[in-house]
Each structure stands twice: as C-alpha cells, then as structure tokens.
Amino acid sequence: MNVTIRKMAAEDVPAVSAIDRMSFTLPWPESAFRYEVTDNRVARCFVGETDEKRIIAAVVSWVIIDELHIATIATHPDFRRRGVGKGILTEALQDGYKAGARRAFLEVRESNQAAQAMYRKFGFEVTGRRPKYYKDNGEDAILMTLDPLEMI
Ligand SMILES: CC(C)(COP(=O)(O)OP(=O)(O)OC[C@H]1O[C@@H](n2cnc3c(N)ncnc32)[C@H](O)[C@@H]1OP(=O)(O)O)[C@@H](O)C(=O)NCCC(=O)NCCS
C-alpha cells in the first residue's frame, strides 16, 4: 500500500473527523479540525492518503516559537500497524523542525500503550503527568517530550 503524506485541506476535514471519531472516546468536534486547517496560524496539519485518494491518517501539530506540540494523531483502524503512524509523525516532526521547533511535546493516555510505544521509537521520553486530564474516565495524561528535536 502506497501512502502519500500531504498538507491537510479544508475538503479533507469530514474524512479526518470520521477517523478521529473512530479513534478517540473524546473526539474533537468537526469544527475544531476546520479551525485548525483554515484559521489557526500556528497549526500544521497533514493527512495520509492512499493512491485511491482515501484519507487514512491525520496529524495536527502546533509550532509555538521553538516548541512543537502534537495536538492529535490517528490512523484509520483498518490501516493500523502498517507504518502509516510512523510516516505521518515523521512528517510532523520534520516539518516542525523546519519551522523552527527544537523540542516536541505531547500528551497521551496512560493506558495507550500502542501510541506510547510509537513515541518511544522516535525518542520521546516521559517527562510528566497531568492527573485526571481526560474528562470521560478521569484517566491521567502522560506528558512525553522529545528534546532535542532533530532532523531524522
Ligand atoms: C497510535 C497510532 C496513531 C499508531 O498508528 P499506526 O499507523 O498503527 O502506527 P505504525 O504502524 O506506524 O506503528 C508505529 C509503532 O507504534 C507501535 N504500535 C502501534 N500499534 C501498536 C499496538 N497495537 N501495540 C503495540 N505497539 C503498537 C509499534 O512500536 C509500531 O512499530 P512497529 O509496527 O514497527 O512495531 C494508532 O494506533 C491510532 O490511531 N490509535 C488511536 C488514536 C491514538 O491513540 N492516537 C494517539 C493519541 S496520543
């Protein structure tokens, strides 16, 4: 399967939002993705697209001065464990570096071992905890940091 990573466009938002709803118990409203793509000047958004033009992954990141924050990342459930997550995260990190970021941060559910394993592969380390961060079940968020962020 060939997957191209490209910038997210406003037309991609319904497909991205559908993946988000399949991936998270607290999905973003579709309007939040629309805001990120069209209005948020610090946001940098990418999708993974198959040769058949199907959107199967998305990432939203924010660059604030020299810090990159991974706001959300997901792969469609039918396309996981094929390297797509690694591909789209690589794009977000490299794009963030080019935009001036030299450290990267993200929050992840304590129970989300799959995502934590992916982040560790990129060199992210656990640097903090936000107690009861997730409103649905009161789960803690683990704060993970990649410092320094370098070109891969
Ligand atoms: C996390 C997520 C984005 C990974 O996407 P993916 O396309 O499956 O990722 P990849 O195939 O590139 O896998 C990357 C690495 O993550 C780890 N990983 C992914 N899924 C895993 C699982 N179910 N169990 C253990 N490790 C897993 C592995 O280390 C994997 O590398 P490997 O396949 O070489 O062993 C995907 O599972 C997802 O969308 N989950 C729901 C949303 C989510 O949790 N997002 C992160 C929120 S912080």
What would you note in describing this structure?
This protein has 152 residues and is of the alpha+beta class. It is 29% helix and 34% strand. Strand 3 and strand 4 form a beta hairpin. The longest helix has 15 residues, at 84-98. It is globular. The mean pLDDT is 97. It binds coenzyme A. The site of coenzyme A has 20 residues, from strand 4, helix 3, strand 5 and helix 4.
Q: Mean of residue pLDDT?
A: 97
- Strand tally is 7
Helical content band: 25-40%
Per DSSP, the total helix count is 4
The CATH H-level superfamily is Gcn5-related N-acetyltransferase (GNAT)
In CATH terms, what is the fold-level topology?
A: Aminopeptidase
Largest sheet geometry:
7 strands, mixed
Features:
152 residues; alpha+beta; Aminopeptidase; 7-stranded mixed β-sheet; globular
How would you summarize this macromolecular structure in one to three sentences?
The protein is of the alpha+beta class. The chain has helices at 13-23, 30-38, 84-98, 113-121; strands spanning 3-7, 43-50, 55-64, 67-75, 103-109, 125-130, 141-146. Strand 3 and strand 4 (67-75) form a beta hairpin.
